[in-house]
Amino acid sequence: MIGYVTLGTNDLARAAKFYDALLGEIGAGRFMESDKFIAWGTGPNSPGIGLIYPNDGKPATVGNGVMVAIIVDSSDKVDRLYKKAIELGATDEGPAGPRGEGFYAGYFRDLDGNKLNFFCMG
Predict the structure, then answer these.
(1) Most buried among 6, 15, 73, 79, using CB within 10 Å?
(2) Helix, strand, or coil here: 114?
(3) pLDDT of residue 1
């Protein structure tokens, strides 16, 4: 299964402020960082999300068709976290709501244009 995902950024400090505030809402905190990378997680054996300056030294760009999906345990949390992301400067990619039978999600792009969602099943 997935251990962690990294997202490229061109401004680590700005992106870190966004993710500190957003992921703090689900109890995630920084567990690793350097001058080129920061990673967040909810525990030592949980999946993580990292921000990184690209290793090749070129500007970070968005991968077409790439998305990070973060599971939470209720549609209320999806609503709250989607709204928080937008308040922090994310752009809408599909407001929180049902997406077929038993799937609820809210889609957004972070400050660097990376696509993410919060979702729950059931």
Answers:
(1) 15
(2) coil
(3) 64
